Amino acid sequence: MKGIVLAGGSGTRLYPITLALSKQLVPVYDKPMIYYPVSTLMLAGIRDILIISTPVDLPQIERLLGDGSKWGVRFSYAVQPQPDGLAQAFVIGREFIGDDPVCLILGDNIFYGQGFTGMMLDAVNNADKGLATIFGYPVTDPRRFGVVTLDDGGLPVAIEEKPSEPRSDKAVVGIYFYPNNVVDIAAAIKPSARGEYEITSVNEEYLRRNKLRVKCFGRGFAWLDTGTVDSLIDASNFVEAIERRQGIVISAPEEVAFRRGFISAQELRRLGERLQQTDYGQYLIRLADGKVF
Is the N or C terminus of the chain more exposed, i.e. has fewer CB atoms within 10 Å? Predict the structure, then answer.
């Protein structure tokens, strides 16, 4: 399976922070924002990842991530000239995707909770079987989100974009797993009233074909969108609380690479030594030495 991180947009809701800095490079506590979605893809076992961003921001992101070899993955890069909708990622990334299924994750979404890796691996298996998988998260005000409604058996019966009278409290979050035919479905959809190629239109087509599945996050699971100053602070505070109390680091690509077997303990230690003046680097060294469980 291939992975795509859609890291486009101008980050206007974070101005003036993002006037001269890519939103995806803004720190969320102790690491750049883009580390979180990249780590999520790696947790799902995805090692071939395309980063899509603006012409201005892409060189900054490439400077940070490089070719991915230090983490045992491969990064490719592509430009999204205008933010014309999430589904455009599959048009831009068609050659990259090739004949493989694909996972799309938004560059400003953070996920944390027990069982998430297993849910993603199930979604990978679904994609191999020709099924699309989206994720639902209960929210207090569904009118602000794309919303999925399920029947008594847990199968989706409707998807609505920011409905005025929601039939469900399940918001569709920013990670999507698709079989390879998503490239054709995305290429065939028409722009919405706001002129964008909507991911909801893609999901509706899979629903029409009875090929859409939904996994719902339960109580205690965290889904954080870091697109505003307040949500960015909330996310940073959340990450800080978990890391300080449990003595771990959330969404460190180096750790994910090590635990998934992409790199060795020796390679992990070298990465930690490059950052040894920081708590982050010291954590990687302890992990490589078997002192983190």
Answer: C
